[in-house]
């Protein structure tokens, strides 16, 4: 177990015990700063057969210029905010498990 010191969480709560630090961050407002804001809900559908090979990398930080695909924008966001977000990586080269 890592020992952490929590000092500030701007939009969340920090709970500290003597040995363990648990940080819960809750967004007070919108998490999507700019992507397709005119849409009621941003949802994307990708056919499994059309996923990029060997990996499909999807954005979860809502800052990618190529949304829904990750373009590395999370690195800048994490550096600026201290956040730790990263993409969803789907290994499309991995063999599917055998059906039972
Ligand atoms: S750019 Fe958003 S997770 Fe990478």
Describe this structure in a few short sentences:
The protein has 100 residues and is mostly beta strands. It has 1 helix and 4 strands. Its cofactor is [2Fe-2S] cluster.
CATH topology of the largest domain: Ribosomal Protein L9, domain 1
The total number of structural domains is 2
CATH class of the largest domain: Alpha Beta
Ions, cofactors and other ligands present here are: FE2/S2 (inorganic) cluster
Secondary-structure element order, N to C: EEEHE
Q: Which of globular, elongated, flat, extended, rod-shaped describes the shape?
A: globular
Pfam family, one: zf-CDGSH
Organism: Pleodorina starrii
InterPro entries: CISD1/2, FeS-contain_CDGSH-typ, MitoNEET_CISD
Protein name: Iron-binding zinc finger CDGSH type domain-containing protein
What report would you give on this structure?
This protein is mainly beta and 100 residues long. The protein has two domains: 1-30, no CATH class; 32-100, 3-Layer(aba) Sandwich (Ribosomal Protein L9, domain 1), CATH 3.40.5.90. It has one helix and four strands, in the order E-E-E-H-E. The protein has one helix at residues 73-81; strands spanning 12-16, 21-25, 55-58, 88-91. A two-stranded antiparallel ribbon has the order 1-2. A two-stranded antiparallel sheet has the order 3-4. A hairpin with a 4-residue loop joins strand 1 (12-16) and strand 2. The radius of gyration is 18 Å and the shape is globular. It starts with 11 loop residues before the first strand and ends in a 9-residue tail after the last strand. It binds FE2/S2 (inorganic) cluster. FE2/S2 (inorganic) cluster is lined by residues 59-61, 63-64, 70-74, 85-87. FE2/S2 (inorganic) cluster binds next to helix 1. It comes from Pleodorina starrii. Its cofactor is [2Fe-2S] cluster. One of its GO terms (molecular function) is 2 iron, 2 sulfur cluster binding. One of its GO terms (cellular component) is mitochondrial outer membrane.
């Amino acid at each position: 177990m890592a020992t952490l010191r929590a000092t500030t969480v701007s939009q969340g709560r920090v709970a500290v015990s003597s040995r363990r630090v648990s940080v819960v961050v809750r967004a007070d407002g919108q998490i999507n700063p700019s992507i397709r804001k005119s849409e009621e809900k941003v949802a994307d559908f990708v056919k499994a057969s059309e996923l990029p090979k060997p990996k499909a990398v999807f954005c979860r930080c809502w800052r990618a210029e190529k949304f829904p695909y990750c373009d590395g924008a999370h690195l800048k966001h994490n550096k600026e905010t201290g956040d730790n977000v990263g993409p969803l990586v789907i290994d499309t080269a991995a063999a599917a498990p055998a059906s039972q």
